[in-house]
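INTERNAL TRANSFER SHEET
From: sequence group
To: structure group
Subject: DUF4405 domain-containing protein

Please process the attached sequence and return the structure record in the designated field. Keep the field labels unchanged so the import script can parse them.
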Amino acid sequence: MTTKARVKILIDVVMMLLLFAVMAYPMTGEALHKWLGISLFLLFLVHHILNLKWYQSVPKGKYTAVRWIHCFINAMLFISMIVLMVSGFLLSSLAYDLNIHAGLFSRKLHMLSASWGYILMSAHIGLHWGMFLGLMRKRIKRRVPRIATYLFCVFSVVYGICEAATRQFFLKMFWMLDYAFYDFGEPVILFMIDYAFTMIAFACLAYYAIKLPRKSLAKKKGQ
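Return from structure group:
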């Protein structure tokens, strides 16, 4: 593996950890939340700079169902992150000092972009899950039974979607919530488990969304 590839993987892992921390607003507080958000956005920009070749390849070649899924998720994630940063600025003290008062609109926009951003970044991870599985298989000699993997995925999807609904993800994503209510006394470990399974759920859905069309295409070629 090249040094550049290692750096890209490291940045992706740090971004994933920062994403957890940013979503944990009740535990971090406003000041730390702001700096964590800025750090995440800067790494997001670095991530795109390191993947400029992907942008150069967008207008080239044939578009299959899998490639359309990749492009759609990546484009929506990019938009979500830009809106997230802009809405975060509108909620900051700097915007207030500049006499910019977006009020409820910026709060709802921030909740909407954060929720979409989390789900889309989870899906983005799922698009590259095959690469991570390949790296894990090289390091783990004993293979996990296929049925165990499927059962874990099914459990994760059911549990993760239920938790996303319980934590009002879908209300925020579709502009149906004015204010978010947090449990400031919630144990950190419970928060991490629920958000981890939410991430795994949408990563699994994205992974199989591209795996099934690939299998179907491979069968057609084999006929």
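Handover comment: The longest helix spans residues 188-222. Residues 87 and 110 are 5 Å apart (CA to CA).
Transfer complete.
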